[in-house]
Amino acid sequence: MKRAAYHNLGCKVNSYELDVMRQILEADGYETVPFEEEADLYIINTCSVTNIADRKSRQMLHRAKKMNPDALVVAVGCYVETDPDRVEQDPAIDLAIGNNRKGEILDLIRARLEGRGERTIYRDETLSARPEYEDMQLAAPGHTRAYIKIQDGCNQFCSYCIIPFARGRIRSRRPGEILREAAALAGRGIREIVLTGIHVSSYGLEWGVEGPVPFDPVKSGNALLDLLRRLSGVPGICRIRLSSLEPRIMTEDFVRGLAEIPEVCPHFHLSLQSGCDATLRRMNRHYTAKEYKEIVERIRRHMAEPAMTTDVICGFPGETEEEFLETRRFLEDISFYMIHVFRYSARRGTVAEKLKGQVRERVKADRSAVLLDMTRDQARAYRESFIGRREELLIEETRTLNGRTWYTGHTARYVEGAAEAAGGLSLRPGSLVRGRFAGFIPGTDVLRMEIEEAEQSAY
Tens digits of per-residue pLDDT, 320-373? Predict the structure, then answer.
C-alpha cells in the first residue's frame, strides 16, 4: 500500500482543506502515516502569512525530501501562490499545487507519477479576477467539532496582509452544498459545526455582481443569516459557531438575527488589530475604535455574556508608546474573553513592509508581554464568572489532570469544563452533559462540572 504523510501550516481553512485532500488520497488507497515516518508521498499544505511562515514551509518541504529522497514531495497552497518562481526552482519540490486547485490533487499526482505532467506547478490564474469557488467536502473529520468551509478569498487589502494575493478575490460556496455537508457530518455524530473561510463576512457578496465587489454588510449579513437559519434546521446539529468576523458585519439587524437562532453560539471573534485610530488607518482597517466598541456593546445588548475574542498586533510600523497605551486602555475597557496577541512581522510584498517607523523587536516583545498578562487575567475572570452556574458541555476527549481522569469539552461560549470519570460514569466524545460549575480544577483554567444530566452520544 502507498504511504502518504501530511503536514499543515497556517489557518483553520488550511486545516480543513488538508483533511479533504487526505480523504481524497485515502479513498484511492493511500495509507496515512505520521509525517516523521518514511512515506512515498509527502503533502505540505503551506502558509505564507508572514516571511517566517514562508521559511517554515520551505523547511518542511526540505525535511520531507531529506527523509526520503525518492518520495514525491508536493507543496500546496499559499506559498505556491506568493513565490511561484522560487517554488519552481526548489529541487525539494516535485509538484506544486496552488489555491483553488487542491481538489485536483489526486489527478495531478497521478499525472506527475505517470510522466504526463507538463509542469511541476499548477495555479488558478483567475484568482486575482473572479475565480469560481472550488467545492471541497469533508466527510469524516475524526472529532466532535467539524469545520465547514463556506467562503474563500479576501478583498480587504489590509496593509500588513498578503492573503488577498495568496487566496485571490472573494468567492462563496452555495448553501445547498454546505447543507449537504452539514447533514452528512451530523449523520456521523457531529453536533457542533464551525463555519470558516478566509473572510466569512464577505459571504455571498459577489453573487449577482458584475465587476468590482464592494463590501456591503447588509447583503453579506442577510446571506449569512439565511444560511445559519437553514443550518439550524439540520437534524443533529445543536451548535453553530462562526469563525473570525469582520466587525462591520455586526449591524443591529444582523446581531438581532443571530440572537434569534438558538443554535448559534454566543462566541464571536471580531478581529481588532489595534485600539488606536491612527494605527488602524495605517493598517487600512475600515473602522474606528469607537465604532468597534459600539459593535461590542450591541452584541452584549442582544446576548447574555457573549464570549468576545479578538486579535491584536503589537509593534505595527509607526506605533508610538502613546499609541500602544491607547490600545492597551481600549482593551482594558472592552474586557475581552481572549486576545490573540501577535508581534508585527513584516511580510514581503505588503504595503506595511515599506512603512517608516519600523519598531524594534525588543519593544514588540515588551508590548506583547504586557498584553499577554492582561488577557490571561481577563480570561480567568470571564471563566470564573460561570462558577455556580448551570451550563452545557459538549464532551470532546478524555484527559488526565492532576493525576485524575476527566471528560473534557467546551460550552457554547467556548469555556472549557470537565466532568470527572469516576463512579461508573462513562461518556463518549460527542455526548452532551449539563450541570453546575463548582470551581477550577487546581492548577488549571478548566472548570469542574457537577453533572446533573447527560445525553450520551450514539457514535
Answer: 999 999 999 999 999 999 999 999 999 999 999 999 999 999 999 999 999 999
Q: How far out from the chain centre does Cα 51 lie?
A: 20
Decide if domain 390-455 falls under CATH 2.40.50. yes
Q: What is the dihedral of CA 299, 305, 306, 307, to 10 degrees?
A: 140
Q: What is the DSSP string of 28-66?
A: TTPEE--TTS--SEEEEEE--SSHHHHHHHHHHHHHHHH
The architecture CATH gives domain 145-384: Alpha-Beta Horseshoe (3.80)
* The three cell numbers locating residue 448: 469542574
- Check: CB of residue 312 under 8 Å from CB of residue 339: yes
Does position 116 have pLDDT exceeding 80, yes or no?
no
Does 442 have pLDDT greater than 80?
yes
- When mean pLDDT is compared across 66-75, 124-133, 165-174, 263-272, the lowest value belongs to 124-133
Superfamily of 3-122 according to CATH? Methylthiotransferase, N-terminal domain (3.40.50.12160)
Query: Residue 302, Cα to own-chain centre: how many angstroms?
Result: 25
